[in-house]
Amino acid sequence: MKTLIVDDEPLDLLVLQDLMENYGSVRFSTGGREAIDAVRGAREEGAAFDLVCLDMIMPGVDGREALKAIRAEEETAGILLGDGVKIIMTTGQRGPKTIVESFRNACDGYVIKPVEKEKMHEELKVLQLI
After folding, report:
1. Structural domain that includes position 38
2. Whole-structure pTM value
3. Which pick of 5, 76, 115, 120 has the fewest CB atoms within 10 Å?
4. d(Cα 31, Cα 6) in Å, to the nearest integer?
């Protein structure tokens, strides 16, 4: 599995790296704009990411905006909803309104920080990535 972890907090990056390295290669991004460009570039090179773990609160382009932009670019590229990169929001945001909004914007999963190994493993199974 090829994973992009997007988070502006170094400790959260390390935790997710430790979890995700067990499943394959991992790349990092510390912001939404960089993540959008990385997902597009990988797709255009024929080496698309299987998974993006996307933090919600980041300076500049936040996770909500990045999610919308990634899905809009997939649509423009002719990728049907559900056939694109799997995106799991990894965030401390627990409010039902925020969670519902994320799924309306086509995230595939939602994991509350601190990310626990068992919870991430279950999300990956549900998404049929493992």
Report:
1. 2-126
2. 0.95
3. 76
4. 6
List of residues 6+ apart from 97 with CB closer than 8 A? none
Q: The domain spanning residue 18 has which CATH number?
A: 3.40.50.2300
* Amino acid making up residue 9: E
Number of domains in the chain: 1
- Report how far residue 90's alpha carbon sits from residue 5's, in angstroms, rounded to the nearest whole number: 9
CB 6 within 8 A of CB 63: yes
Return the pLDDT at 128: 96
